[in-house]
Amino acid sequence: QVVLVSGHLDSWDVGQGAMDDGGGVFISWEALSLIKDLGLRPKRTLRLVLWTGEEQGGVGAKQYYQLHKENISNFDIVMESDEGTFQPSGLGFAGSAEARDIVREIMTLLQPINATDVYDTADGTDIAFWMRDGVPG
Hints:
By secondary structure, the chain is of the alpha/beta class. It has a single domain, classed as Zn peptidases (Aminopeptidase, 3-Layer(aba) Sandwich), CATH 3.40.630. It has helices at 18-37, 59-68, 97-107, 128-132; strands at 2-8, 45-51, 75-80, 90-92, 117-119. α1 links the parallel β1 and β2. The radius of gyration is 15 Å and the shape is globular. 24% of the residues are buried. The model has no long low-confidence stretch (mean pLDDT 89).
């Protein structure tokens, strides 16, 4: 079973996208680094994907989806960090009511940093294919 954690590398070359785009890469990378540093052994495979081509129409995400969609039943959740590296307030979530309850319970662990909100919607160019096909995101 796979938990996909991700962010994207690209941004508009004349824009101010470094925090939006590159920030999600570092957030996702650091999340997995912390799990390793803490000596935790997850029950599922944690897969880090650093997307490219998001700003150009999601071509990297589409390619990844095409290569892995035959194993969609192995994906438990797909996550994308794509709104900067500012003070977190919680997660946007799309999935079943049962899955939402699990996410809410997990988010209580983030009370010390006041990031416990679970918002009713989730989107992300890079994980949209998966969520469209029913994988929680």
